[in-house]
Amino acid sequence: GNGICKCRVCECFPNFTGSACDCSLDTTPCMASNGQICNGRGTCECGTCNCTDPKFQGPTCEMCQTCLGVCAEHKDCVQCRAFEKGEKKDTCSQECMHFNMTLVENRDKLPQPGQPDPLSHCKEKDVDDCWFYFTYSVNSNGEANVHVVE
CB neighbours of 90 closer than 8 A, spacing ≥ 6? Predict the structure, then answer.
């Protein structure tokens, strides 16, 4: 449906390529939240990211399970959204609305590994030197979801 067959050879419509015109040249599905194709960590092939750095995965090469960054990077925003404290308390509504947040009663109610989306379990210290627990995951639509223990 992406071209016409002439003498047993596909002539592809614009934005399609491949022997069967089955490869889309549209890079929109590869666009990461930072505006880069595959987050600058991969190539967009037929509308799908091929991550060149094996640490990174996900639809736009934004998830890194082994990086220390995921928990530390979101710690201040989770703290201000869930508990209204921390370094970003005063700028929370401007800086920290990039994820959906769900409060849960205890650690047993946090999402567990085995779900389809890459998941990071986090344990961080707050401004009062207390531990708080949360999970961070990104679904196939690129939406970040955070679950925090109240």
Answer: none
